[in-house]
């Protein structure tokens, strides 16, 4: 025992955690009077020792309680769904909670009654993913504040952490909403000609997915019916703001033209073109934002930009001396539209000073000489010829020559699809085509462009024997002996087209030529197949023509008539001595009537 008044350090291996400095006490203490009840008076020293003892006892008991309360990961007195989890490790608590959930499985699986607006329905908890997240719940139960002294000897009920599949719940609730809800009406400003037309916004009436999920999660474990509210969601842009956009932008935008200036001259952008290019687009929140669709604006300007722009020219390829020859193209100049939209928006609200400027940027051709030379166009892979009568002076022959010259030299890149209608456009008088017989509604009648079907058949066969992919073609209604049966094609603007796809890794060049009695189409590329041939099946379902008398006159075209029949043709493609493709083509020809330009005999 260490005497007070001595300052003797403890052994080095038994030092107290808190160092207390020794205190010197008086040798003689004054005699204090005894209390009235006769109890001996207590000295200050005694009271100090007594206080220290009491404090030590209290702290010891508190420490003991703390040790007891916080034994395990989950503090004692903690329960979930009426199950005591306190004093357990997390794994034991999770195991006990799962056992409790298993005991309540039938109750938790019971349909949940949900009311939305005026409708009520039952939702299967499993179908919307309603579950208790055991691990998250135990983690919540284990989280206790270090200063929560009031919890040491008390108890607490932890709400379980519930999870739900929000998209599935939303889908189930939307079915319940049905016609009670409404979609948001987005604001809009469009043009009818140059007159602005508005659509004012209206709020949606629907469930809020996140809020609905919270309501359902809270109500599920209680077993009580749940009410999910319908919520109005207003578009960001209001009706007043729509009117302001009309007054400040839409109306003045089309009140006068805008002048576009470049280094090569100027172009007038008409109010009609402005109306087609000006857009007011609403995002998903209903915010209406003006912009200029430059592509639509260019389209609305039509050929006007041609006065200040220079179109790029592709490199070309021709056949000279039996070999392909490349001629280089040239770069063009085009209005730089990167800033044009913003510049236009800046001047459209103005009544005057409506001028914008734009730079001309260089535009390279789609097909340069270098690229054309890398396409592997080096040899003739297929050729086909059809014959015609009347010489080159007849209107029909002239039409064949016109379309052949138009298509000559066309290069189809790998993977691209060629459309004959798309390439030539409308074939009318302005394009140099003449009147010649065409088949219309089952009769031969005069029509502009007659004879182009013969060229179409010639081109179809050339691509067919080149092994290229047939995309679209239609044989004639009647069989003509000048064409191969089934393997032929008609064309008519704009409804009937001929298309093929370059399904090779090489470029395809279409070369055409003609004589006074024939037209030839040759396909140049890199040869892939050993051979492409046609095998015919027998003709069947043969029908005989009938005789039809027509009113005589300059528009009547007689015909001898022909039989109708059905026939199959098979394109057989071989490589390395083996058949690699066998494609079936079938067609049924109607019997062509014998047309006689005379009154029917009585």
TrEMBL record:
Residues 1-16 have a biased composition (Basic and acidic residues). The chain crosses the membrane at residues 48-71. It comes from the Bacteria. InterPro entries: Glycopeptide_resist_protein, Vancomycin_resist_VanW, YoaR-like_PG-bd. The keyword Zinc does not apply. Residues 1-40 are annotated as: Disordered. This is Vancomycin resistance protein YoaR, contains peptidoglycan-binding and VanW domains. It comes from Micromonospora phaseoli.
């Amino acid at each position: 025992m260490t005497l007070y008044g001595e300052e003797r350090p403890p052994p080095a291996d038994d030092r107290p955690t808190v160092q207390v400095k020794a205190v010197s006490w008086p040798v003689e203490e004054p005699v204090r009077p005894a209390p009235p009840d006769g109890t001996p008076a207590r000295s200050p020293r005694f009271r100090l020792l007594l206080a220290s003892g009491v404090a030590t006892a209290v702290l010891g008991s508190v420490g003991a309680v703390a040790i007891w309360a916080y034994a395990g990961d989950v503090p004692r007195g903690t329960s979930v769904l009426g199950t005591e989890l306190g004093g357990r490790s997390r794994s034991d608590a999770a195991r006990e909670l799962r056992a409790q959930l298993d005991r309540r499985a039938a109750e938790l699986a019971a349909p949940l009654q949900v009311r939305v607006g005026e409708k009520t329905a039952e939702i299967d908890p499993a179908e919307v993913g309603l579950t208790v997240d055991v691990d998250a719940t135990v983690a919540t139960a284990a989280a206790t504040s270090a200063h929560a002294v009031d919890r040491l000897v008390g108890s607490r009920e932890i709400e379980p952490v519930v999870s739900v599949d929000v998209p599935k719940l939303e889908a189930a609730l939307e079915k319940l909403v049905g016609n009670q809800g409404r979609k948001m009406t987005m604001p809009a400003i469009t043009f009818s000609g140059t007159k602005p037309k508005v659509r004012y916004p209206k709020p949606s009436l629907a469930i809020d997915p996140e809020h609905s999920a919270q309501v359902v999660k809270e109500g599920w474990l209680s077993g009580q019916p749940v009410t999910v509210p319908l919520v109005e969601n207003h578009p960001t842009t209001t009706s007043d703001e729509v009117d302001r956009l009309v007054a400040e932008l839409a109306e003045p935008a089309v009140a006068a033209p805008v002048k576009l200036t470049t280094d090569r001259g100027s172009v007038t952008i008409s109010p009609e073109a402005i109306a087609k290019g000006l857009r007011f687009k609403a995002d998903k929140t209903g915010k209406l934002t003006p912009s200029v669709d430059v592509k639509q604006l260019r389209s609305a300007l039509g050929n006007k930009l041609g006065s200040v722009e220079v179109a790029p020219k592709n490199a070309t390829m021709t056949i000279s001396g039996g070999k392909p020859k490349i001629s280089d193209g040239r770069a063009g100049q085009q209005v730089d539209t990167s800033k044009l939209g913003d510049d236009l928006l800046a001047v459209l609200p103005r009544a005057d000073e409506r001028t914008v400027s734009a730079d001309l940027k260089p535009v390279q051709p789609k097909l340069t000489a270098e690229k054309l030379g890398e396409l592997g166009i080096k040899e003739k892979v297929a050729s086909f010829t059809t014959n015609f009568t009347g010489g080159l002076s007849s209107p029909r022959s002239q039409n064949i020559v016109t379309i052949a010259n138009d298509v000559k030299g066309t290069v189809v890149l790998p993977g691209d699809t060629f459309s004959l209608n798309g390439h030539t456009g409308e074939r009318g008088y302005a394009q140099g085509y003449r009147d010649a017989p065409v088949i219309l509604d089952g009769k031969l009648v005069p029509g502009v462009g007659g004879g182009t079907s013969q060229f179409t058949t010639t081109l179809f066969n050339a691509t067919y024997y080149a092994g290229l992919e047939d995309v679209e073609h239609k044989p004639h209604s009647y069989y003509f002996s000048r064409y191969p049966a089934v393997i032929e094609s008609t064309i008519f603007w704009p409804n009937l087209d001929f298309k093929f796809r370059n399904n090779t890794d090489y470029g395809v060049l279409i070369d055409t030529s003609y004589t006074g009695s024939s037209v030839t189409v040759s396909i140049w590329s890199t040869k892939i197949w050993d051979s492409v041939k046609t095998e015919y099946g027998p003709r069947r379902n043969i029908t005989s023509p009938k005789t039809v008398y027509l009113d005589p006159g300059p528009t009547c075209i007689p015909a001898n008539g022909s039989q109708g029949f059905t026939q199959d043709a098979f394109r057989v493609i071989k490589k390395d001595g083996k058949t690699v493709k066998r494609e079936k083509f079938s067609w049924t020809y109607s019997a062509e009537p014998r047309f006689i330009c005379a009154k029917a005999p009585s």
